[in-house]
Every structure is written in structure tokens, then in C-alpha cells.
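Our consortium's second objective concerns turning raw sequence data into structural hypotheses that experimental partners can test. To show how far this objective has progressed, the report includes one record in full. It was chosen at random from the queue rather than selected for favorable results. The single chain below, 159 residues long, was entered without modification.
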Amino acid sequence: MTQRLNYLQQSPELFKKYLEFSMLLQNGPIEESIRGLVEIRASQLNGCGFCLDMHIKQAKIHGERELRLHHVAIWRESTLFSPRERAALAWTEVLTNIPAHGVPDEIYDRVRTQFSEKELTDLTFLVMSINGWNRLNVAFRMVPGSSDKAFGLDKANLE
């Protein structure tokens, strides 16, 4: 599969602003490990190989345990995730695939027991951000691993 077009070159100002938006989330109250899990899970659900590859490598560089990376797809059955991480993953799934009837109260109530109002709004913006990147990269068939050197992901030592 080959890349369809380079959206960065075609819309550099929009790319820059969206990247700025995404980078603001790095300084928010959501811890790095949860940000990584959210980005990985949304990318799995959206079938975005480029983002999945990138965020697994980033998580590995930031010290995430390899078994947990393998268990993200089966987080409900896994014992490797905390209640806070489980709430974030449930929130990610429901916002990535919004049901016809909206977000169920049960999921909202569960996530509210784990996150403050500020954290929950930042988590929601994080889910929005990764879903947008997934849609760009799926639409234009960005090749997984094609930007590893530019993003410093070759340091993950994953091949």
C-alpha cells in the first residue's frame, strides 16, 4: 500500500495548528501512560496502522511494559490495568465509536469516579485528537514506520 498524498505539504497551516492542539495535551493532567493507552486503543479501533505503530513505539520509549502493550486490545480481560486506566479505555472506546443513543450513563459514571472534571475534559480532548489523526492517516494511507527517524521512534528498537 502506498501513501496517497502528503497532507502536511498540502495543508501546512492546518497541520501546524492541529499539531499545536495535540501538543497542548502533553502538558495537561492526564499522565503519560494513560495518554499512550488511549492513543493505542483508539488507533486499534480505527485501524490506523501508522498511529498504532507510532504510539506503541512511543510507549516503549517511555518505559511501558511490553505485555501491557499486547494486552491493550483485551484490556477488559487483562489484570494489568488499574481502575483509572480501565475507565480511560472505556471512555476512549465509547467516544471513538459513539453509540446511536450517546454515551451511556454507566460509562460516564465510571469515568467520573476516576477523573476530575478537568481531567475528564482533557481526556475527551485527547480522544478527539487521536481520532482526528487516525482519520487523516487512514484517509491518506500513511505508511507505518515511515516517519520513525523524524519522530525519534527508531530509539524504540522495534522492528
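The partners drew two points from this record. The mean pLDDT is 94. The CA atoms of residues 76 and 128 lie 22 Å apart. Both points have been shared with the crystallography group to help prioritize constructs.
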